[in-house]
Amino acid sequence: MFDFEISGIHLDKEKRKRAVDLNVKILDLSSTFLMGANFPNKIEKHLLPEHIRQNFVLAGDHVIVDGLHAEAPDDLVREAAYKIFLYPNAGQLRCLEELLSNRDLLAKLVGYSTYSHRALQGTIAKNPETVMEFLEKLSDKLSERTLKDFEIIQGMKMKLNPQNSELMPWDPPYYSGVIRAERYNIEPSLYCPFFSLGACMEGLNILFNKLLGISLYAEQPAKGEVWCEDVRKLAVVHESEGLLGYIYCDFFQRADKPHQDCHFTIRGGRLKEDGDYQLPVVVLMLNLPHSSRNLPTLLTPGMMENLFHEMGHAMHSMLGRTRYQHVTGTRCPTDFAEVPSILMEYFANDYRVVNQFARHYQTGQSMPKNMVSRLCESKKVCAAVDMQLQVFYAILDQIYHGKHPLRRSTTDILKETQEKFYGLPYVPNTAWQLRFSHLVGYGAKYYSYLMSRAVASMIWKECFLQDPFNRSTGERYRREMLAHGGGREPMLMVQGMLQKCPSIDDFVSALVSDLDLDLETFLMDSE
């Protein structure tokens, strides 16, 4: 009923038609905005210094810029990419304004004061006021750490580029990477030999077996069952309940395959009329390199973490036992949907878990503990700045989907919000919001990733940190959180797992404490 009502099923005939028309218009505008958000910009070749042109695609008398080139070592390349790629496009600007305006009209038509109020009903946060409280408190708690991170990044820029040391928005991703590499030796080539795909899958199997009594078995697909010959079919089997569902693993790179790692549902689980349960069928899609005759598929630490993340989604789907399939597994509020997947990242970064499977593919040697510790600590380098950036994006999203008409242009709002909630200056004649493609799929819900991470962090620390293989905790996790999909209020599921009602301050503290350095690792590295 709720899903129908936010689209106007309860309205009279004339208003229902208006709601349908608005939804169609919003879909069209969303599609147009997404295309524009990814469209490259071009500039006449002679306007760019000759020595940086080779970093971009040349097309006759023009240079094509199709991204931010955030990892380019040359400051001028990053600056040029930022200013050219983010240069405002009048058509895209109109499209965004129309999209936000039509969303507001739809929300008001179906009885909400703003689009954000409509989007957030049924979520953990419940309303935009709670979201803004969460984001503003998080910003306050991060402020000192963010300033410290900016000082460290500026120090590195001054060291490498003393002539031009002012910190600009195109600098943090590159210089934080430099600092990370300098402090911690985390070259992916050192780690890959320990993370063969077979070893990582065995690690997941061990973890699910200990926590949930579940095993993953490879099955031979029938002829024509899979869309590519290297797709693997896994049966998910419980030690006493038997078959729970199937996961198709589409793991390897191929031409024309989307680059995004993701999980999607082929068939949702549901209770059938005869009392049997329709088993779920899902796909995990990654972009891993193929094995060769001499070399198995080796994963970088980032790929290994992504595999665990996506498998968290898959288990949410496999273990959902809902009456209806439109609320099964990951079909739940956005700020809850990422909790099981982010929780799996905590397992992937725990030495006790990694030690179960990380073996050198040639020697069989276990990965040394200090390698895992260094990897975990390296992720905390300038992490406050990264989190502050996410807070800025989430607040911008809330303002855009808040009270309409907007009191200023979307670019003026961006400038004001960036300077207040990020700290680096707005660059004139740029309009980052026109590249903010998440405004389409996550309208008024961009905060969800931070909220999900906060919940996952609390669950990890309070339930699994002491013993990541505890079976009774695993069973409670299945019973309280994974079984219900979107069929139960999300905060009730979180309370059932934590055995208490968490506050906004609890969520903020969980996120901020994740940034604390581990003293043991610090001392090991100092020796």
Automatic annotation (TrEMBL):
It catalyses: Release of an N-terminal octapeptide as second stage of processing of some proteins imported into the mitochondrion. SUPFAM superfamilies: Metalloproteases ('zincins'), catalytic domain (SSF55486). Gene3D superfamilies: Collagenase (Catalytic Domain), Neurolysin, domain 3. Its cofactor is Zn(2+). Residues 69-511 form the Peptidase M3A/M3B catalytic domain. It is found in: Mitochondrion matrix. One of its GO terms (cellular component) is mitochondrial matrix. Its EC number is 3.4.24.59. GO terms for biological process: peptide metabolic process; protein processing involved in protein targeting to mitochondrion. It holds the Pfam family Peptidase_M3. It is an enzyme of class 3 (hydrolase). Its main location: mitochondrion. Keywords: Acetylation, Calcium, Cobalt, Hydrolase, Iron, Magnesium, Manganese, Metal-binding, Metalloprotease, Mitochondrion, Protease, Transit peptide, Zinc. Cleaves proteins, imported into the mitochondrion, to their mature size. Monomer. Belongs to the peptidase M3 family. This is Mitochondrial intermediate peptidase. It comes from Pipistrellus kuhlii (Kuhl's pipistrelle).
